[in-house]
Design goal:
about 35 residues, transmembrane helix, mainly alpha, single chain, Cytochrome oxidase small assembly protein, membrane, about 0% strand, transmembrane, CytC_ox_assmbl_put
């Protein structure tokens, strides 16, 4: 029982969460590269 509007909202939330996770991951990789882990 999901309306197209609800689906769009869920997709937007998923994209936001994914971008936050990606930002943390990239930051972690950069830190490992610069400070040698």
């Amino acid at each position: 029982m999901t309306t197209p509007d609800k689906k769009k909202q869920n997709l937007r939330l998923a994209l936001i969460l994914a971008s936050v996770v990606a930002a943390f991951f990239v930051g972690f990789i950069v830190r490992m590269a610069f400070f040698g882990g």
